[in-house]
Amino acid sequence: MSLTHLIDTYCASWSSENEQRRRALLLPILSDGARYTDPTVHAIGAEELLAHIAGIQRKLPGARIVRTSNVDVHHDVARFAWKFVMPDGSSLPEGLDIAFLDAEQKRLTRIIGFFGLLTPV
């Protein structure tokens, strides 16, 4: 699996309203004990992240995460931009994720999410 495909699979797991599909997408790409942190949550392990994603899906039914940049990587750390796209085509402010990868770059060990674009100085 390419790194871009790995990240796109991760985004697809956030986008699926089907719990079994989310699980099937996410479990193979997360390392044991993987952590996810954004301004609203700190989830440890796949079950906590899956519960968080389910909560987002309940609040924003039909929303999907779309990667809006190339995946940039060095030293087993990747970054990519994304946005939530609502069923009517509108979107919420974009975000940026930093993803830490295992040594083979096949699984995510930690994801840190930021909401909104960076503000110029």
How would you describe this protein?
- By secondary structure, the chain is an alpha+beta fold.
- It has a single domain, classed as Nuclear Transport Factor 2, Chain: A (Roll).
- The protein is built from three helices and seven strands; from the N terminus they run ααββαβββββ.
- It has helices spanning 3-15, 19-26, 45-59; strands at 30-38, 41-44, 64-67, 72-74, 77-85, 95-101, 108-115.
- Strands 1, 2, 3, 4, 5, 6 and 7 form a seven-stranded mixed sheet that branches.
- The radius of gyration is 14 Å and the shape is globular.
- The protein starts with a helix and ends in a 6-residue tail after the last strand.
Question: Can you tell me the CATH class?
Answer: Alpha Beta
Shape: globular
CATH domain topology: Nuclear Transport Factor 2, Chain: A
Q: Which blocks of ≥5 consecutive residues have pLDDT under 50? A: none
Average pLDDT confidence is: 95
- Largest β sheet strand count, sense and barrel closure: 7 strands, mixed
**Helical residue percent?**
25-40%
- End-to-end separation in angstroms reads 38 Å
Structural class: alpha+beta
Question: Could you give the order of the helices and strands?
Answer: HHEEHEEEEE
Number of strand segments: 7
Name of the CATH architecture:
Roll
Task: Tell me the strand percentage band.
Answer: 35-45%
Return Rg in Å. Answer: 14 Å
Number of separate domains:
1
H/I helix tally: 3
